[in-house]
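WARN  no MSA supplied for this record, continuing single-sequence
INFO  ligand: zinc ion
INFO  echoing inputs
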Amino acid sequence: MKIDKNIMSYCKNCNKHTANTVRNYNKKPQRGLSLGTRRHNRAIKGYVGSIEPKIHPKKLGRKQKVMLECQECHKISERVFGMRTKKKIEISR
Ligand SMILES: [Zn+2]
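INFO  complex generated
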């Protein structure tokens, strides 16, 4: 999958279509004190009753996410491309 480095896209802040620069999405490390992490740790410790291991089917590939930066207001938003693929996004320069 190939995307241009500069694309036109809707910006929520400007409320119109603007020119956007495309960047790769990098996953940030988990926050240790967020509510979800604390709740999960409590469940593992055994204060919330028994937790049965759920068996999830393995999914093939993942959805590709890119970050868009508006060139007018410099706000960053994300866009997900809907299909699950093993191919990675290439940003043309
Ligand atoms: Zn904008």
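Residues 11, 13-14, 18, 70, 72-73, 75 surround zinc ion (CB under 6 Å).
INFO  checksum written, moving to next record
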